[in-house]
Design goal:
The protein contains 18 helices and nine strands. By secondary structure, the chain is α/β, with parallel strands linked by helices. A nine-stranded mixed β-sheet has the order 1-9-8-7-6-5-2-3-4, sandwiched between helices. β6, α6 and β7 form a beta-alpha-beta unit. The longest helix is centred in the last third of the chain and has 30 residues. It is globular, with a radius of gyration of 22 Å. The termini are far apart. It binds nicotinamide-adenine-dinucleotide and magnesium ion. Nicotinamide-adenine-dinucleotide (NAD) binds next to α2 and β7.
Amino acid sequence: MAKLYYESDADKALIRSRKVAIIGYGSQGHAHAQNLRDSGVDVRVGLREGSSSRAKAEAAGLRATSVADAVGEADLVMVLVSDTEQTEVYENEIAPRLKDGDALFFAHGFNIRFGLVTPPDGVDVGMVAPKGPGHLVRRTYEAGGGVPSLIAVSRDASGKAMELALSYADAIGATRAGVLETTFEEETETDLFGEQVVLCGGVSALVTAGFDTLVEAGYQPESAYFECLHELKLIVDLMYEQGISGMRFSVSDTAEYGDLTRGPRIIDEHVRAEMRSILDEIRDGSFAKEWVDENRAGRPRFNELRAAGREHPIEKVGAELRAMMPFVSGGRKRLEDVSGG
Ligand code: NAD
Ligand code: MG
């Protein structure tokens, strides 16, 4: 078993001896800034000119400045702008104000791993990556818990970069849940692989293909939706709570026999070979290059594919069925409200 760090492993004084700049006040930014502040850390938030987040940060009792001023004041800079903005923000506003002895931190390794940001030699480069969205990083901290996190160092100029990362992780609440040491390579490559092959890409393609197959065979779209999408959550909850065997224990023997004999026919050797080539594209940098180029071009393919996904029949029937089950979306904003569709 890998070593996990908990509260008693962290040197709480390290992060409290630093002046921290949180750059960006989105999902992760608002959570890191408030958790650090509540843990007694000296924090300022660096925002872009005219940012609508300024009012929110100030309402939360934080001091907001320009990105340049925040970096200038601080000796630890946590970069929490979106991954596709980081190269530009780094080059224009962060790099010119970094000093030897500063630390530059990230919550995801993408820009460092693929060489899109190259910090100077005298700067510690670290990562504290919560394994959950920002609102949970804040909510669990306030409730006395935390979100498990990964820490890593890609340059240890001070000789204490990993201890500093652990101290930062502690101050956002992560050591209450468990902190795992990793590398920028492992965090970035496994994160991209997971979201492409299993979590986002794999699951949405599997659900859509199952739905299409039933509808094309003449079944009602409503049945296909309940079967292939709605019920997925119940199965995933069982796996989350009790593992795959625990899920199998809870379903019927007929479902379990179908799972054991049919699952490997769907995820067959061809699919596994494709998974390996997707992993190769991640590791050799070709996925990163494709995504950077796509952003430079104004995201034409991304926008087209996203629009096509929203037009798929599973979305139409799903919106109608969910409207009858308001408890399903709880208090969360629905896509139909956001996009006006
Ligand atoms: P986000 O999109 O929620 O927020 C980004 C913030 O940066 C926004 O407030 C935006 O206004 C601001 N911003 C954009 N361009 C800017 C600029 N030029 N100057 C100043 N501010 C600018 O992003 P996020 O999801 O919080 O992601 C931040 C980092 O955290 C990323 O590296 C991401 O990979 C990582 N991360 C995210 C999650 C998650 O679940 N959201 C989990 C772990 C790690
Ligand atoms: Mg991720």
